[in-house]
Every structure is written in structure tokens, then in C-alpha cells.
Fold:
Amino acid sequence: MSRARVGTCTLVSEIVAKTESFRASLDKQPHEVASMFDGVAKRYDLTNTVMTGGLDRYWRWATRRALELRPGERVLDLAAGTGVSTLELAKSGAWCVATDFSQGMLAAGRFREVPMVAGDGTALPFANDSFDAVTISYGLRNIADTDEALRELLRVTKPGGRLVIAEFSTPVFAPFRTIYMEFVMRALPRVARTVSSNPDAYVYLAESIRAWPNQPQLAMRIADAGWSAVKWRNLTNGIVALHRAYKLG
Ligand SMILES: C[S@@+](CC[C@H](N)C(=O)[O-])C[C@H]1O[C@@H](n2cnc3c(N)ncnc32)[C@H](O)[C@@H]1O
Structure:
């Protein structure tokens, strides 16, 4: 085999290997996702703030505003992890429960004074029509069956209740989108190596952001699950999108 041919084969096998590891990391089984989050739990909050340059706080504040919570309302924060998202929602005076299937994430946030219930987003441990509002921040992308989670969220919401999803999305300004996707794919895992206890989780994060539906595509998935009046708002040029919808009364 000529040198050029060896070079070509090496390149092709590298591309195949990279594609396979890309698929393997995105096709995680639910127990693999749970154990990945168990692994990053202790430094999760700090890593988030470092990696987003503090923007996570603004995005959480905007999520609470979009939910328009009132004191005394019952709210489910699904995929709540350490409860950092739930604590922000509880500032409204609503009763907010954090649910997640990673015992490690819940344990890392046990010091927070929010109720926590272990549970899987695709088989929620709550009765029909239990909540005035349901929400999920940076978790829907991680749930193996997105559509089932959207249907479960609908089931546990009271008629007339609302949904807000905060999730990484697609920047709307094309030149920025290109730079951002390169940043996410290349820089994020390197930065994570210096601050996270499990940098591989951030390779998964970057890959899953690239593979995630854009704003209109996600809106269609939400509507297909049975939610009404789906709209979205971009934060920070669409790095994050807030999708909002209602359960028909
Ligand atoms: C990126 S964290 C988000 C945590 C928190 N909501 C926040 O805003 O920082 C994603 C969470 O989704 C949880 N998760 C993934 N799949 C899940 C499922 N099927 N059921 C419940 N939680 C799930 C993970 O355990 C993890 O804690």
C-alpha cells in the first residue's frame, strides 16, 4: 500500500472512530446518563457558573420570570439536579419540588432547602393534574426519550397549567453560530478538564448541544406531545431558548 493510501486509510478510520464515539456518547442508556451526572455532581454548580461566565444566573432568573409563578402555586422542576434551578423558582413564593433520577445530583444539593423527589422524567412519580406549572432547565436534552418526557410533563400538569423549557439552542446570528459551535465543540471539553471532576461529561454536553433540535423544531416536538400555544424566546442570541406552552383547560 502506498504512503498516500496508508494516510487516507488512517484518516478514514479516524473519522469512523470519531463518528462512532460521537454516536456512542449520544446514545447513552438512562443508567449511563444518571451515573455520568453522579460523577459531576459535586462540582456541577461551580462548573456551570465558570463555563457560562455567570450567564447561568441570568438564564435562571429569566426562566422564573417566564413561568410567572405566584405564591402558593405547585411547581415541578424536572431534571433539577442539585436543585440550583429549583431554588431560583422558589424565590417566587411558589411551592417547588425538584425531581431527578441521579441520586448523586440530588445528594450534592441536599443542603438546599427545597423538597426533592427522586424520579424518572419518562415515568413521573406524580398523579395526573398535580401542578400549576412544570419546568425543565438544561435537562430535556439529557432525557433519553424526549417525547415521552414531554407527554409525562403534560399528564402531571393541571388543565390551564403552563410549561417552560430552558435549553441550550441554536444561535440566530449566523457568524456567531459558527464561532459558537466551534467553541462548544473544541474549547468546552478543554476548559472542563481544568474545573470538572468528569471532563468526558462535557464532551457529551458539546455533542448533545450540536445534535439538539433548533427553536422551531423543538416547538413542533412540544406541540406534537399535546401542548398548546407553543412560543419561544431567545436568550443571549439563542445560546439558550425558553420555550413556553400551555395545557388546554
Ligand atoms: C444539566 S443537568 C440540569 C440540572 C438543573 N436543572 C440545572 O438547571 O442546572 C441535567 C439533569 O437531567 C437529569 N436527567 C437526565 N435524564 C433524566 C431522566 N430520565 N429523569 C430525570 N432526570 C434526568 C440528570 O440526572 C441531570 O441532573
